[in-house]
Amino acid sequence: MAQNSLTPKGPLATKRALQLPLVDGFLWLVRIAAIAVILVGAYNSLISMRLSGQQWRDLVVFGLAQGSVYALIALGYTMVYGVLRFINFAHGEVFMIGAMTGFFVSDALARTPLWLTQPFLALLIVLICCMTVSALVALLLERVAYRPLRGLPRLVPFITAIGASFFLQYAIAGLFGVGVKSYPGVPALSGSFTFLGFRILKVHLLVIVVAVVMMAGLYLYIEKTKAGRAMRAVAEDQETARLMGIDVDQTIARVFAVGGALAGAAGLLFGLVFGNVNFFSGFLPGIKAFTAAVLGGIGNPIGAMLGGLTLGSVESLGPSLVLVGLDIPSAHQLKDVVAFAALVLVLIFRPTGILGERVSEERG
Amino acid sequence: MALLGIRGLTKDFGGIRAVNGLDLDVDAGQIISVIGPNGAGKTTLFNLITGMAPVDAGEIALDGHDIVGLRPSQILGLGIARTFQNVRLFPEMTVRENVMVARHCRTRSGMLTAILRLPSFRREEAQTRRRAEDALAFFGARLVGWRLETPARSLSYANRRRLEIARAIASDPRLLLLDEPTAGMNPQETQELTGLIHKLRDRTGIAIVLIEHDMRVVKGISERVVVLDYGQKIADGTYREVAGNERVIEAYLGRRATQA
Amino acid sequence: MAEQAIPAEVLEAAGPTLLPARGVDLRRSARLGLTAGGVAVFVSANGMVEAFSKRDIVGPISLGYAMLLGVALGFGYLAGRPPQVLQGFAAPRPGWRNLVGGLLAGAVAGAVMAVFLVLIATFEVRRIFLNIGPELVREAPRLLTVGQDLGPGLALIFGLATALGGLAGTLHLLRERWRRAVLAAVLWVVLFGLLASVVIQVLRGIQTQLRLWTAPIADVLYAGGALSVAGVALVAAAAFGASLLRTSGRRRRPLRRRLDQLPDTSRRLVRVAVLAVLLLGLGLLPQILGSFLSEVLNIAGIFLLMALGLNIVVGFAGLLDLGYVAFFAVGAYTTALLISPQSSLGLGWVFWAAVPFVILASAVAGLMVGTPVLRMRGDYLAIVTLGFGEIARLLFLSDWLKPVFGGAQGIIRIRDITIGPVELRGPQAFFYAIFLFVLLATYITYALQDSRIGRAWAAMREDESVAEAMGVNIVVAKLSAFVVGAMLAGFGGALFATKIGSIFPHSFNVIVSITVLVVIIVGGMASVPGVVVGALVLVGLPELLREFEEYRFLLYGALLIFMMVNRPEGFIPSGRRAQELHEEDMAQDAWLRERAADEREADVTAPAPRKAGEG
Q1: With an 8 Å Cβ cutoff, are B93 and C458 in contact?
Q2: In Å, how far is A256's CA from the nearest CA of chain C?
Q3: Residues of chain B where predicted confidence (pLDDT) is lower than 50
Q4: What is the pLDDT of residues B4-21, one digit of tens each?
Q5: Is A192 helix (H, G, I), strand (E, B) or coil?
Q6: I need a labelling partner for B169 at 20 to 30 A (CA). Which of A96, B135, C179, C601 fits?
């Protein structure tokens, strides 16, 4: 089709016709290089047997646990994107505030007997506090920073969100200090057990279970309740939803609240897994969760869950699998590079995600 | 040989065939109206010709050379310019700048010459400016003078339409595609624009294809009328021929009656 | 333009604030008061008041107190402001309601603050809120109760806030002209107080360098580093008078216009003279400013250089790049590798020999980042570039590439810039190098803005697909924006490396990108003077007032939100927005057409009244 025997007038020279192939070629080169690096690295590290099977399985479990946390955060991104079509960059900070709340509440509870006698009740209280506070912050954010900007080009709320992100970070730093806060230990969650050859830390099991329960709850909420239906309607078409008598403002606020609550829960789980949190803790998990949301097909809650688990595993396994195989020293130092590389590659090559269904309407 | 030749042009949008095996020839210097009910695929046809939407099947040839798959900017460079149904200007740029952008493909100065302000750059810039003002002067006094420096968004609706046409003219096209140029204009303005389109063709000899809903305009302006329905050409001829065509009447009255 | 011209549904959609006010809007005042109280509590709780209380700016009033007073005054002013009315409606006359609005807001704010004071006096919250220490209320300085015990302190705070709110509200009773003059006076007093060290240094510097007797002025204006009573009076009077003069009824012709009317030769002469004076002033500037202030200017200059580059990418071309720091890092590392004798290359070249390589490296980096994101939408593009920026930093930091880039230890002993035999050592000398590059970047920015590629960028920013349809090759336009932006950042990095003398990966984190972004957004997108002022204020000021450092990103975040919520139209005016405003325009156009019917033939020369067309 492209047999151009044209001799165009003006400066339209052949180099112009070549530009796209050049760009495409470059992208293909990147693609092939990425695949080659992954394959060679994986092959080398697998045949070198540097890690035992047990260690691989540990990495998988850890990856799933951290992936569940990402998935919970990613749900917030994806839901907001679904209704408003913009990236709520400050969502990572909502998560971080959840983790902070978790620290303060559990720190207080750890000094009561409840922490030892009824650890799960105590954790439930902490969880509810985290979810409430994060939901409130998300609501506040929506009210103050985003609602006035509805209908503007989406870069405007996006930049606002960047501002909100830094404001929240440094507000927390100013109020609570910049130091790292260490979660109190939960004796009931220390130790591990073995299941199907996988050695699973109890904390990781709790994290995965809580995340799964939350996601199931969210699924039911979106699919079965009236409020959930309203959310889906608003995501499809705000104007029509409004005409059908749905309170769009309230529905959007509810989306932020639900997303915030999930991020708050993720904050607590993050605190339980990694043990500490500071004002900057929201940045990296936020970006990674956004990657997860895109990876799963942004706007799609199920996709966000899958994306989160995938990204968690990639980040956990990637350095050992690929980088060690390439003889890169201190490969785990580069685990964030792996995450960012995943982000960049996903956005470049598969911006529609694994379950990219909504994307056709998202052009422009 | 026709200036623009279209053979078997087809475009699908997710199961809906917007353009279906369309054949169309446009000769140099012709004024053709494309009419048809809403959703007949008229605007899609323009998008396909200008490269703004990928062609699914078929050929589009300008001067006998295939232009399918070229970038829109290349197609403009080859001499096909267009306007948009829902006027798409660069709202924050001034009236003059809007038109100067269209000279992009006819100029060549790069960044280095711009930074060094070489004589060639100054010459080209001055020429670009003049050509832009010439194109705007086509509409008489409406878009020149103090209006040159106003942002496009501050123009009235009719003036925006005019500015869009001036922008297209400034690129020295051989074929001009106008998407509902008189939409939103009052009868007086419509009449004026009709006269100008004739004048433009007579002066420059370019071919003009316009999508139009106002039948008085179609009658007054076009040497040939092409009727589309469901992405297919159902009639092609003079206004009189087409107006008497049974399929056309059916296509319009059959559905139009319920719409209007 | 009678009232009937505005249909009822438009009024309804416009919301209650646009309707003619029938009384005091108590709810609005109370809400503003609550916000003011919240802000005051926030800045007290996060330690700003305490940190700022060490710098006296006007007599005994410290910056911390000034901030609290400013909150009360500012929100009181807002609360006292008469509600906006639609065109065609009469604005309510100023009167007691302005005073009441301000008083109410002040009282609510004071009450909020009082509750906060009682709370922190009663409970020990330091374990959670690290910055709420005993010296705020309980112990010696008792900052928040102005040294009083809790009881009298509360009364004082409440009374003060109410009084200040009311005072600010009464400003609206003044005529516009006088009000402006008062505001100008207040603003300049605060500015002179804030910049005390700069003003003193400049006045002294002028005396030593130019032998003008300016130092005594400093002694009159300032006492102990803060504005003295005489200083306040002088500055306020000057600002007040200048403002009144500027708005005086007999408006004099603007200078620009008068210049234009001069004959060609004298105009050129004036221009040359102005330029010469400017250059002379700038040449002497580092000597006058002294070493510390020159250093501040240098840092601001480096950020300015980057901001000018990012302005091309974001402001001109509309591509939101959040990983801009990567180019800065590339420039810095290229320079360091080439001119430090202790780098892995160990070449030890002179600075100027490295410049071509800086250009090359940053251009390549620009292409590498720009190419993959060509087809990406705005927000995705931002995130991907953010990812690139972080990857770059992590790689520079990594042990893997330590043999090349030195890992966390960075690269040290980067040689100074030399011009012939002269070494640009020390901030005062370095100023000239920065100044040279900033001048160059400014020129390049202006030259490109008003050129073929500049128009292509602008068209692309407004509507990408139409720009392409109008002949702009988007691929070329995008990549060239990335490359030019990258080069300017690369220069910034090169200067940064030689200025500091050693570079470490942690200097190149995302915060730098955000800072530059804030500079151009707050300064005003695509406006070069705005960017210059933005860099000086947003980067220079925190460097000057070190206690700001801890809170600068808090401020940046708040500024970003504020800018976007209040004037988003300054940013990325897109075709889509124009379409959304379309329906309004249609109505307006219909009206315009009717009105313009008679002036149709003869509207060429005289600009018609443009009020209605704007907005």
Answers
A1: yes
A2: 18
A3: 256-260
A4: 999 999 998 877 888 989
A5: strand
A6: C601
